[in-house]
UniProtKB/TrEMBL annotation:
The lineage of its organism: Bacteria, Pseudomonadati, Pseudomonadota, Alphaproteobacteria, Hyphomicrobiales. It comes from Agrobacterium bohemicum. InterPro entries: DNA_Partitioning_ATPase, P-loop_NTPase, VirC1. Transmembrane segments: none annotated. This is Chromosome partitioning protein ParA.
Length: 237
């Protein structure tokens, strides 16, 4: 029952988009996912309302510092994976979410400002380790990457992270219209109208690879359900 938090104190880094992509893909694979929407902008909650009931996926809105742990405790038995969407600010909520996470994913676009927001999260994780002995596993996921070219600033950000020995996922999240459109249309990538949205297949492949890579990092591996959605159990990774 891993808890995954997406964090970057820089607003607009791509947290909410990455949360939605991972949550819908894990649910599609058969994992029961609960998203804790702790962002006051409530993008995921609005998407959920627009989408209606989704198989294997539930969203809890207005999650606060006071309610976060209770939501996790109360939904433990019906959830294989919790995913937390945080606001793009430095707050006590960030500290709390980091502290209860099995893995923290830090979305970074190829810009110096984004890298600074990521550094704040990395420093926070280091501080929790130093002061409280908490070892919080974490990785950077590059987002809004141009599928065709590596920009100079993206290469610089990668070099900076490698220097600091920060794990960077092999699968970046590409810049795709489909990743914007699911917020406008509701539902999943598969449900998007391929006539109107370009490269939906490529977008789906990108998200599949991202989700597989994230699953490989988890301390507990959940065995996906069969084609009829029957849950098959779980085992240690
Ligand atoms: N991979 C992507 N492809 C295309 N557009 C993207 C992608 N990732 C993010 N965006 C767009 O960038 C903007 C910011 O993304 P998002 O809301 O996911 O960031 P955030 O980190 O959650 O922001 P905040 O800190 O305000 O919560 C949105 O308009 C979103 O549609
Ligand atoms: Mg957000």
């Amino acid at each position: 029952m891993p808890v995954i938090t997406f964090a970057n104190t820089k607003g607009g880094a791509g947290k909410t988009t990455a949360v939605l992509l991972l949550a819908t893909e894990l649910a599609r694979m058969g994992h029961r996912v609960t998203v804790l929407d702790a962002d006051p902008q409530l993008w995921i909650s609005r998407w959920s309302e627009m989408s209606g009931e989704m198989r294997n996926l539930s969203v809890i809105s207005h999650v606060t510092m006071a309610s976060m742990e209770t939501h996790i405790r109360e939904n433990r038995s019906n959830t294989d994976c919790f995913i937390i969407d945080l606001p793009g600010t430095k707050s006590p909520l960030l500290t709390m979410a980091l502290g209860i996470s099995d893995h923290v994913l830090i979305p970074v676009q190829g810009s110096a400002m984004d890298a600074r927001g990521a550094s704040e999260v990395l420093e926070h994780i280091e501080l929790l380790n130093r002061k409280m002995g908490m070892k919080i596993d974490h990785s950077v996921v590059l987002t809004r990457v141009n599928a065709m070219i590596s920009t100079r600033s993206m290469l610089l950000v990668k070099a900076l992270l490698a220097e600091k020995n920060v794990r960077v996922l092999n699968t970046p999240i590409a810049e795709r219209a489909a990743f914007r459109d699911i917020f406008d249309c509701g539902g999943t990538l598969e449900a998007l109208d391929c006539q109107k949205v370009s490269n939906v297949e490529k977008a789906m492949e990108n998200v599949r690879n991202f989700a597989y890579e994230v699953l490989r990092l988890m301390p507990v591996r959940v065995v996906r359900s069969d084609r009829d959605g029957k849950f098959l159990g779980r085992k240690a990774a």
